[in-house]
Amino acid sequence: MWILFLFFLRLGFVSFGGGYALIPMIEREAVQQGWMTQDAFLNAVTVAGMSPGPIAVNLGTLIGYRTFGIGGAAAAVGGLVLPSIIMSAAMLLLIHRLRKQSWISRLFYGLQPIVTALILYAVYRLGIGSLDRGSWGGHLVFGLAIIGIGWVMLVRYRMPPVYLLLFSAIAGAAVLG
């Protein structure tokens, strides 16, 4: 079980690119260590991908549980998320200690437009990618209406975001479904 924990701990430190980028490394180790056969691993990837949550965490849970039971599942998930917890805690402590520094507030102020631009770019790419040529007009108008109504719900009425998500899901299902 210690080898399982250390393997997922190493993955946790190099998990850039998301869980799907880790699948080949997890596969190689799981098959080499004899934790799973190739076919069992492919089935585990399918189940992990269909389950809610990050695929790497789901896959680690399945491999750990199949190999060492509940303790193995806890070891795999613990190893995978421990580096993120450590790095987040270290950044939190650093920011907390430096919060009185004027350059920190200027830094975060400067990051706001960049984060906003990245979010808008993701919305643009996902929105354009989901529209086929024939339905562009109607879907675009509907999407802009949802954005406008959502903005009013959030800014004017200060509704919790969960209500906005529910509203947009129901509206999308009613109009587009």
TrEMBL record:
Belongs to the chromate ion transporter (CHR) (TC 2.A.51) family. GO terms for molecular function: chromate transmembrane transporter activity. Its main location: membrane. The keyword Hydrolase does not apply. It is a multi-pass membrane protein. The keyword Flavoprotein does not apply. This is Chromate transporter. The chain crosses the membrane at residues 68-95, 107-124, 136-154, 161-176. It holds the Pfam family Chromate_transp. GO terms for cellular component: plasma membrane. It comes from Cohnella lubricantis. Coiled coil: none annotated. It is found in: Cell membrane. Keywords: Cell membrane, Membrane, Transmembrane, Transmembrane helix.
